[in-house]
Amino acid sequence: MQESGIGHFSAYPTLKQSWGLLGILILITxxxxxxxxxxxxxxxxxxxxSMMKSSWVNLGLYSSLFILIILLGFRLKRxxxxxxxxxxxxxxxxxxxLILVITLGLYFxxxxxxxxxxxxxxxxxxxxxxxxxRSIATVLMLVVAAPxxxxxxxxxxILDGLLKNYPPKKAIFWSALFFGAAHLNPWQFIAxxxxxxxxGWIYHTTRSxxxxxxxxxxxxxxxxxxxxxxxxxxxxxxxxxxMVGNDLLYLLLLIIDGIILYGAFKLLSRRMPHKxxxxxxxLSTSENETxxxx
Length: 294
Prior knowledge:
The chain has 294 residues and is mostly helical.
């Protein structure tokens, strides 16, 4: 398929380059996983078991992975855009409140969608182990490292370039798809795509990573909190539907959630900067924003 968009490609990455960056991320992940499998075969159970049970090791590996791929992305991006900067803007309280409502509302609607896909036992065990891990390192990985690292990559680098090369709807769609695909499983793909689309729209209208990091923090933080509430027993996992306990009540809650989501989204869209030209490049900086070189 021939790439088409706003005209000549003036920014990194294009769609093909985005696939390449995502492929590198997945490749590095596979290499690291393979390395630990080899270690487990050579030194099990002493080295592998003790290391992989250390949440601090997991945090270090995750952070190192994203630092490497982000530095690569920045290097490639600045070859084409020497003046590229990561932009952060403050969020006012009303917008933060609406974003909180929308993010939690989306999270509640996503749960029954993921329930439609049967989950194999081995993956359930992986999720249970993650949700039942209350260590500081795991919490830091989920609510600090992941929001910052993944937003720098998927919105700060990938979506930023796509918005400069393609119409906004196309750029936002593909960035959401990349974000979902990076999770490497269909259950998290659903959540990643939906939340990625919302965060993509937010980034398009604000050109700020602060708000998308905030959304990501809410999504992952609520997941950690629900892990405490829904997984009191590490041997079993409870869905929100099972937690409510009544299908009719659950359906009513989903309808109410949809109505609240619609209203909150309409209010937020009215408060977002109005764009007369959808193909405009990044918004200019304002008094309340800080452009930071990473």
